[in-house]
Every structure is written in C-alpha cells, then in structure tokens.
Amino acid sequence: MVRRGEMTGVFNGNGAEMARRMQTEAVRRSRLKIPLLFAADVIHGLRTVFPVPLAEAASFDPDLARRTARAAAVEAAASGIDWTLPPWSTSPATHAGVAASRVRGGCAARPVDGGGARRGFQGSGLAAPDAVAACAKHFVAYGAGEAGLDYNSVDVSERTLRDIYFPPFQAAFAAGAPTVMASFNDLSGIPATGNPWLLDTVLRKEWGFGGLVVSDYTGDEELIAHGFAKDGRDAARLAFLAGVDMSMQSGLYLKYLPDLVEKGEVPLARLDEAVRRVLALKVALGLFDDPFRRIDPAREKARICTPQTLALAREAGARSIVMLRNEGDLLPCPVRARRSR
Question: What confidence score (pLDDT) does residue 336 get?
Fold first, then answer.
C-alpha cells in the first residue's frame, strides 16, 4: 500500500525501525515520493508512563502538564512519531491552561519564553526533530455522555458548549495545535463526525481554524451505527462534507471518495482543501525537507525511559493523587474537612 501511494500516514506503529522501512518505501519507491506521517495515541507518555490526563489535571498545575508533554514528545519523536493524539480535559479556566501548556507551554495570554526544553509537545517549533504535532480531542463534549457511558449521546445547550466545553479547545488552538479530532458521540442528535455546524460553522468560520480535522478511528463508519448514514458510501460523503479531512482507519475515504467526486456528490474543491491540509501539516513538520528527521533507532534507544523521565513520572504521580478519605489511617495525621467561608 505504501509503494502504491494508498497511505498518507501510519497510526500507532511500532518504533523507529518500522518507520524507517515504511518511509523508505514512500519517498524512494512510490510514484509521488510524498513522505508518510506517523501518528500515535501518546495519551499519557510513550514508554515512560505518566498519569492519565484526568488525573494530571487534578494537580491543577499547567506547568506539570507542560513538562510531562515535553518528555512524552522527546520519547515519541525519537521513535519516529510526528503527530500525537492525546485527549484534553474538558472544563474551562484551569483546564484551558492545561491544554495550552501541553501544546507549547503557557497560554495565549502568557506564553512561555525560552528554548524547546521549556515547551510542551510542539517544542521550539513543529519542524524540530524532538517536536510532535498536537491534536486537540475529542471535539466536542466527549465527556458528557448520558449516564457516563463512553460514546453515548450528549444533549447540552449551546451555552453549556460555549461556557464549558469549547474553551479548552480554543486555548489549544491559540497555543498552536494544528489538528483536531472529531468525537464519536452525537451532539443533540447529530454525530460530531457528521456535524457541519460544529466542524464548519463554529470551527472553521467562527474560530478561523485552518488546520486538519481527523476522524476518531472509525468515527466516519460509525455514522451508520448512529442511524445517520445508510451505508459506508453515505458515511464517507457525510463525514467529508461535514469537515472531516482525514479518515483515520475505516478505509471508507479510500474506497468511496473517488467515485463520490467523479459523480459530483463531493466537490473537487473540497477534496483539494483536505489534501492541502494534510500536505501543509507534513510541510510544517519538516517531512519534505527531511522525511527521516524523527526516525533514528539509535536515538530512540538513548531517549526512552531515562532516569530524568522516570523521576518526572514519579513526581507527576504523587502530584496527581486525589484522596477522598484517610482510610486505614494511610496519612500519619488526621484529615479534617475545611469549612467554606
């Protein structure tokens, strides 16, 4: 598939050596010589394991989020990964600061100065060999599923969206996140993956986001399970026209987009937009200048699970603990509830 030019990237691969082999096929043996984009769910560290984002957010420390994101980026980039797909906390104020810190360190109002060591996933710039592109996900209200069930329906007002669920994404975009992932859930009856109000009216037109929108795994195909699309061809059409530029895993775009464009059901201009966004991300990551800039097996071995990152993981774990009760006198002192004033 790589040699035939049927892949734009690889999701959750297996290290620098695999990336080297696949990138070699893409840039030396495929017809167009376009480099592959390697992405992974670096959700709470790559090899060094940090607290899950929900736990890390409980530290109320954006700088901790910045430091763990930077450490995860160094490991990921050393393993050949260009693009990370971590989830974001979805409450305003503090968590907006966490989102911005994970992207680049600091928020739009108070950016962190200094070199790449002081920044989050994207380091000193996307083209840096130790930087990975950040993806804001899941857009939107993913954590508001009915009965707390993953992927379930979400029914909230527009005011709640704007007050609670939009601000962390806006902060991530202001900090420079170049990609966003549509969520699995529906939003007041319309699946996010097929929602033009969300992905075009708000994201593109109102916020001016010019980056790449990707599906959540088989989110486009799951429009069928939602009862929103009648079959795979219809699902590809609805997701693409709603604003999803890249299908992560389902294969529906590869299978149906050529015919949809040929029959005029999808405008060629819309296809051109999506292709330009994918290529623009690859350009920003420096892949056309050096497709192997993040693919170095020797560097991978040197940067994985270093004493410094392991110490940071221990610190982050301690800072993220939330104790609800002092059961069994775990703490050596009594815990008394504070009275609000």
Answer: 57
